[in-house]
Amino acid sequence: MLKAKYCPNCNRTLPLDAFGSNRSRKDGRADSCRECVAKYLAANRETLAKRGRARYAANPETERARRRAYYAANRETVLARDAAYKLANRETIAVKNAARYAANRETELARAAAWRAANSEKIPAMCAAWRAANPARVAAYQAAYLATNQQTRYTKKNDWHDTHKSLITDLYVANILRDHTGLKRSDIPQSLITLKRAHIQLQRELKNEHQ
Questions:
Q1: Residue 172: how many other CB atoms lie within 10 Å
Q2: pLDDT tens track for 117-142
Q3: Which pTM value belongs to this model?
Q4: Most buried in the list 19, 87, 94, 193, measured by CB within 10 Å?
Q5: pLDDT per residue over 10-25, tens digit each?
Q6: Are strands 19-21 and 4-7 parallel, antiparallel or unpaired?
Q7: 92: buried, middle or exposed (CB in 10 Å: 19+, 13-18, 0-12)?
């Protein structure tokens, strides 16, 4: 069984695992070694990208079918490669995504809204699964949010309290009763809330008369 192969680009004889797969070849391996292929791709990235876009534009259905077939046959390899790329190029990807969003904001918002509408039932489970798989990142995000938005959250909380207090809403009254009785808000009867609201209104009127 063949254990090594010659690479015509770098003139080296290398182990078979130094060559990528190519089912069209008799030995099932690419003609050039992985290192040479990587160098070629890096040196011709833009040219290859343009060629790929042109091929896709000319034959979109054929290209989509080809990509789906490749993904189905190489799912684990594709996922591992994509994860490694994202990890190594996180900042570059973030800058590109921000630039694309800024240039296509309305389109991106519409696309995101359409996706959420089409996947509304899946989203809660997806979010829960992600949080369960990334507890450290969730904690980091929460800590960063609290540190950045502490004053805003404090202001919003005060605004919320002032609004409900001025209107003497059911929620405001129920919170008062909860604090004084130790009952859960859900266990406080509406009749008691109504009586307490009338009591608060009377207290406010008496206070206004004495001012």
A1: 19
A2: 999 899 999 999 999 999 999 999 88
A3: 0.43
A4: 19
A5: 999 999 999 998 888 8
A6: unpaired
A7: exposed
